Amino acid sequence: MRELKNEIERAVILNNAGQLDFVLGASPAAHQPADRPSPFLETVADVPTLSELEERYLRHIMERTEGRVRGPSGAETLLRMKRSTLYAKLKKYVAESIPVGILGVGEPLMYAVTLPLVCPFVTACLGAGFGGALAALLHIGTVSQGVSGLFGLLIVVPGQQLGYVAAMLLAYAAGFVLTWFFGVDEQKINEFFGE
């Protein structure tokens, strides 16, 4: 009986013609006509991995809670997840996003860390302003627009790469120093991310 149930379920899942046509005891490949590709393979090609889905959903929840982890409207409550597990996942994604941030994609760090804490976001923006000011003083130009970070080297006017790197390093250093002195609020960090 269980075999019959499994055969019928398999035929229903693999069927995309509207009519069930299967042979009992045949291999799963026999349920799919040779001239028709499996509908499963068509849908799996563009499906993100479970890890990618988890990261996207965690980012969505952190944006929705404005970075708040604890409390009734915090991420741990919405996700019904132990705080230590949530912190471990956040640390993993933040650590993975640092190299990506250096390459010019800053959204993961911005949404998950600096924006919820406000002051680090402002000090990072001010640091970027210092780098932008140096780039303006050095008359750094680009041949197109669209990328930043290290990949920005690909669009900088030839011969101006060293100035671009200096401006980028100044932006990072100024953002770090300003955040170190003015953007660290231990109470707010503990409120959002726990002790």
Short structural description:
The protein is mostly helical. Helix content is 62%, strand content 0%.
Provide an overview of this structure:
This protein has 195 residues and is mainly alpha-helical. 62% of the residues lie in helices and 0% in strands. It contains nine helices and no strands. α5 packs across α6 and α7 runs antiparallel to α8. The chain is flat, with a radius of gyration of 26 Å. The model has no long low-confidence stretch (mean pLDDT 77).
Average of pLDDT: 77
> Helix and strand succession?
HHHHHHHHH
Distance between the termini: 56 Å
Count of DSSP H/I helices: 9
Fraction in beta strands:
under 5%
Q: What overall form do the CA principal axes indicate? A: flat
Low-confidence stretches: none
Radius of gyration using CA atoms only:
26 Å
Beta-strand segment tally:
0
Briefly note the structural class of the backbone. mainly alpha
Biggest sheet layout: none
* Helical content band: 55-70%
Structure characteristics:
195 residues, mainly alpha, 9 helices
Sequence-ordered SSE layout with sheet pairings:
Blueprint: H1 2-14, H2 39-44, H3 50-64, H4 75-79, H5 83-102, H6 107-117, H7 119-137, H8 161-183, H9 186-193
Helix pairs in contact: 5-6, 6-7, 7-8
